Amino acid sequence: MAEDIVSNVNVPVFPVPGVTATIFTVAVLRRSPYILEGIINRRFHMFSQNKNTFKLIALGLIMVLTLALVGGCSKAAGDKSEQAMQQKNEPPAQVNIQDMAGRTVAIPGEVKSILALHPIPTYMLWQLAPDKMVSKDKVFDGRYLAAESVKAYPDTEIDKLKKLPVTGVFFKGTSPEQILQLNPDVIITLTKDPQIDKLAGQVNLPVIAVSKDTLADYEESMRLLGKIVGNEAQANKLADWWRDNIRTMSQETGKIPQDEKPRVYFTGASDILTTPGESTIMASILKLAGGNNVATELSGKPTDESIPLSMEQILKWDPQVIITWKQTTKDQIMNGAEWKNVSAVKNGRVYVQPRYANMDGVTALVGMIWAHGKLYHDNDANYDKLFEDKMIEFYSLFHNNLIKPEQIVEVAE
Fold this sequence. Notes:
With about 425 residues, this protein is an alpha/beta fold.
């Protein structure tokens, strides 16, 4: 068999005194383990009369073969190492994410397209992965992109956002058919969404829930979305700023005895005689800002942002401070005969939340700083300057935008 293999191999030769030596190329040596055997058998009669020469030639052949084999093994090992490195750098096809509703959801290892069904995660996606957004929701569209909306974004970003399709929001209705047409890798909603699993089944796409129920939830939501879209560095930068400001406020208000904290009533967005439940972002703000939220013991769903109540209940609470959703609500309170004996009205402590520091949404953090000022530093020029600085810092960091002085003091209409 070895003789047959060798007879088919083109073996170059060159003269050595007293003998013909055969030199193998590395490629030839790799072809078969029988080649060396065949060559030696065919040439043996040439070496039989000169044993020393034979030994030298055999030794040379062994060395060449050894080098060839070592080289081949090294190249194979190198190829395998390079392949392993490539595989290590490539994202997995699928990863499991635990969302803020406690659900474990499988998503692609690399998310390339995404949409949200609520304005808060829509904002976060714009900040963390604008090029991966395939839509914006209708509330975000009306709040930030309409002609009369707040001017929170640079004009260049507004132009880009306007070009995206508009979807529904979970609390006003969504279209599974539209979502299927947009075909995102991942859908983001809130833990408040009662149709999470139903929607996931309808579109057969992963649906992740984040939360806005407390100020601390915003921090966790940012970090989670940063992980999902592959931008943890920016997410952590925003979340760290958010966390640090909460800690600073907590340290200050934590020193105030509970019985010295003013009684505060926050009117709901839907009606003057509604108020947010205990497990809402507004209640979270009042607590951190150092207020004694009169509505903490209300019955009803604690995450409901508009729990109904009676005027009799308001009079019983007799709030020392009232914060309203908009200017028209304040006007109604200040001009209503049924409100005239409430302490907040008698003492002129009815305030309208700022338009650019709204106590709901991504501005909730600066809304907390504003609320603390109204509770403890009203008409304090130094605190007003601190709030102004925080507003400039917030809009620069979170909106890539420079807020104007008149916007800082503008109240919600």
